[in-house]
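call fold(seq) -> tokens
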Amino acid sequence: MESSPVGSSREGMIAMAAIRTAGIRTRRTSFGAGVAIVVLVASTGAVMGSTAPASAASAKVSAHLTQTSFTKAEASQVKLAYEFSATSRHFGYRLSRKSASKWVTVRNVSKKGKFKGAHTRTVKRLFGSKPISAGRYRVRVTADANAVTLKFAVTAASAAAVVPKTGTWKSVSVSGGGGQVSVTGISFVVAPDGKSLTNFTFDYTYSGVMLPPFTQQCSGSSRTYALGELRRRSPTASSPVRRAVPAPGTSRTR
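ret:
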């Protein structure tokens, strides 16, 4: 079967005209015997490309502390809770302490990977090997698309309340006094409620010149019983009761 060359036929000429109208350049190559092949070269207007896939939404983090004021001993119980809205390629936090008017970095942590879901960690873990001391702090938690700053305070531990045990108490040493009258001992009874004292007494010695019109020397010892009852109060540094212990052989009920 004989075929006509593309360039010499009427149909071929019409096709070439259509190609040129569309803006496509042509190149003609002959392979003898009048056979021609038209190579189409697409112009810039006919170039087809693939569209790049859309990037995933940037991940955000939300966070809160279970307490914002606590003691050093409670740092292992207070927690930082945080959650990612989507998978984040970055997670980190910066822990700072307030010093005068400036924030001084205590610890800075930055990690890369895939972080998602909800998590918790204790405040003690935030400090790592750094010491925890009383003061004002802030922690800045970061993810791919945002950062959250939280503030908290570490307070000094308060002194434990002194609760005396029920029973009779007697001092073993007394400080203070002097001159003509010196207290040598104190004793009292703690009531079953643990809040009141009864039978409060103190022993003392005295010596010296009696008050006018008496002029002779006198000395001796005695015991005084206080009337009523005394409500329990916090002992002071000068109070002899602070060093009191139960009298030997005295039974106590708790």
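The longest helix spans residues 10-21.
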